[in-house]
Design goal:
mainly alpha; 0% strand; elongated
């Protein structure tokens, strides 16, 4: 049962919260003209990752929990794409890009492995 998971104790949730904080920090430096476009998009996809993990833990079956983890994973790939765009249009440095790319790929891997663990249990 998914309800056996406390989202606050899940490392993937903790890592995703850190990503949200870093996302808000870096997007403060984006041009104000991006407020309702790229800034909004990347912030929403970042927030979606831990939010879907948390919401999934409230579901009564692992099948439903897996659906929320899948959505969180999709948001992680969406976020990575937006990160690439921010780098390609010179809103972030290469160092920031590499740091955040490593972070999102770690989160993607963690979600994927967690999903496999749940599927096999």
């Amino acid at each position: 049962m998914a309800a056996n998971h406390n989202f606050r104790k899940l490392m993937i949730w903790t890592e995703a919260i850190e990503l949200v904080k870093e996302t808000y920090s870096i997007t403060k430096k984006f041009p104000k003209t991006e407020t309702y476009s790229l800034i909004s998009q990347i912030q929403r996809s970042a927030v979606s990752i831990p939010s879907n993990i948390a919401e999934g833990t409230s579901k009564s079956t692992n099948k439903h929990f897996l659906q929320y983890l899948e959505t969180a994973l999709g948001s992680a790939f969406e976020w990575e794409t937006q990160l690439i765009i921010a780098f390609e249009i010179n809103y972030i440095s290469e160092n920031t890009f590499k740091h955040l790319e490593n972070k999102i790929q770690l989160i993607q891997g963690m979600i994927t492995r967690f999903m496999e663990k749940i599927k096999n249990s």
